[in-house]
Amino acid sequence: MTPRSTDAERVELANTAFYECLERGDFDELSALWLDDEITCVHPGWPVLTGRGEVLRSYALIMAHTEYIQFFLTDVKVSVMGDTAVATCTENILSGGPAEESGELGPLVGQLVVATNVFRRTPDGWRLWAHHGSPVLADADDEDTDDDPAE
């Protein structure tokens, strides 16, 4: 990284590193990306997790039960205000687990999740403060153009 890189570029790199750690299943590196202070996380369909222990335990469980995962990030936007930054993106996720019978990798499943990642500046760089992922349940093209909401 060049000394001229902006805060937004540094946050985007930290955001990318977060997903790369998940893809590799590198729990130690993933843990180092989070603040030591009070942190929060919402995985799609999960309750709010609060505190370093709960949040990191959730990632350990995800890594232990996911044979393969790959993220293709789109729509990445970063906003920095002082020592806080927000990165939003669409997680285009491809994942798979072991097949029930053979133990080999089962079928791959695709999923879209929109995510908000909040970072704080520290002396060691930008660290995650909060992650919130929400599933995308409908395409933007699926808007109902019916004028009568009762139908």
UniProtKB/TrEMBL annotation:
GO MF term list: isomerase activity
InterPro entries assigned: NTF2-like_dom_sf, SnoaL-like
Keywords: Isomerase
Superkingdom to which the source organism belongs: Bacteria
Domain SnoaL-like stretches: 11-136
Keyword Isomerase: yes
Protein name stated in the entry: Ketosteroid isomerase-like protein
Organism for this UniProt entry: Streptomyces candidus
